[in-house]
Amino acid sequence: MTTTTVTTRTVEYPADGLTMIGHLALPAGTDRRPAVLLGPEGMGLSGVERRRADALAELGYVALAFDLHGGRYVGDPEEMLARCMPLLADPDRMRGIGHAALDVLRAEPRTDPDRIAAIGYGTGGAIALELGRDGVDLRAIGTVNALTTGRPGEAERIRCPVWAGVGSEDPIMPPAQRDAFTAEMQAAGVDWRLVVYGGALHAFHHPTVDHPTVPGVGHHPLHAQRAWRDIVGLLAECLPVTE
Predict the structure, then answer these.
(1) How many other β-carbons are positioned within 10 Å of the β-carbon of residue 2?
(2) 164, CA 20 to 30 Å: which among 39, 58, 117, 188?
(3) pTM for this entry
(4) What are the tens digits of pLDDT across the range 189-236?
C-alpha cells in the first residue's frame, strides 16, 4: 500500500520458534530516518498497531509494528493469557522477540541504526522495557499498560528516558505494581516518568474490540488521544526527525 507520503509492507522473520509477520511503514523520501519499534498488546498485531506505525511514518519515522504470535491475532482471552503469561515471566523470551524485530528494523536501509526508540502496549511494552534492561542502545522507551519489573539490578542498563502511562483504575496494573515499577526505575537511576490517566482502565488506549476480553479492560477515547500525544511528544524530545 502506498499513500502520497507513506509506504508499507509486511516483513517475515523468525522469533520465539515462530514465523513472525510484522508491519513496516516508511516515510516519503530516500534518506535515513530515526526509527521506532512498536509492540502490540497481548492479543497480538492488529490494524490498531499498523495504523500507529503508519502515523509514525507520516511524522517522518521508519516504524515497525512487531508480531507476537506468528501472524495470529489471539482474540480469545484464555488463549491469550495462556500464551502471554509464560512469556511475561520469561525475560529472555521477551528479549528474543524484541531483538528479532529490532534486527529487522536495523536492516531496513531507511533506518538510522543509531537512532531507534521502542514503544509498546501491554505485552509489547514489556518487551520494549526488556530491551532496555538488556542494555540495547535506544533513544527512548515508551509504554502504556506495561509497568513490569525486571530481574534485580538489570534496569541499571537502561540508557535512555523511560515514559510509562497507566489508567488509574487498571486492575491489572494496580498501585502496588506502579510503585514497584517506579521504585525499580528510581533505584537504577533511570530518567523516568509515569503518567496516570484518571478513570481509565487497562488497555484504555485500544479501541473497543468485538470479542471477549479479560476483566478490567475498557476504552477511554479522550485518554487514548492524550496518551498518543504523550508518546509523540516523547519521540519529539528524545528522537527528533531532524537532528
Answers:
(1) 10
(2) 58
(3) 0.97
(4) 999 999 999 999 999 999 999 999 999 999 999 999 999 999 999 999
